[in-house]
Write a structure and sequence with these properties.
Blueprint lengths: L10 H19 L3 H14 L5 H16 L9 E6 L6 E6 L5 H6 L2 H6 L7 H9 L4 E2 L5 E6 L6
Helix pairs in contact: 2-3
Amino acid sequence: MTHIADDSPTTPDRAAKARLAWELYHGANGGEIGDLITDLMHLADVDEHQGGGAYAARQAVSNYLDEQPTWEPTPVYLGQYQPAGQDWITVAEGDESTEPEDVAGCLWHLMQKADFRTGEIPEHVKDLARGEVLVADNGTAFRVIKNPALSG
């Protein structure tokens, strides 16, 4: 049984734990990660680990699937809007593989609803990606920021 604590490591944290073993194995034997996993199953058989390789593989898959919900990437960029006099509302998120301009582009429809001119929105998207805060005539504000949860 796998216990998942609130401070569970993320996918990159867990991958980093295995990286040295993978690099050593791959450097010596080549192949794919699946080859390492297969050889670890054989090791469990030869060394007579409880249940052998098949049990270890089933347990590993079960643990992996149990941990999946904790592995959601933390958004790096947040696309937000703020109706006049209200709190900021996050409507778009982007992880480390996303550019700020992609997140800003997700605000396009809301900018149209706030009466920004459609022809000017591509430039507004670039402005948002650079960190500017835009305010429509109706008082609705738009921004793309780095996730404050990542600072510290």
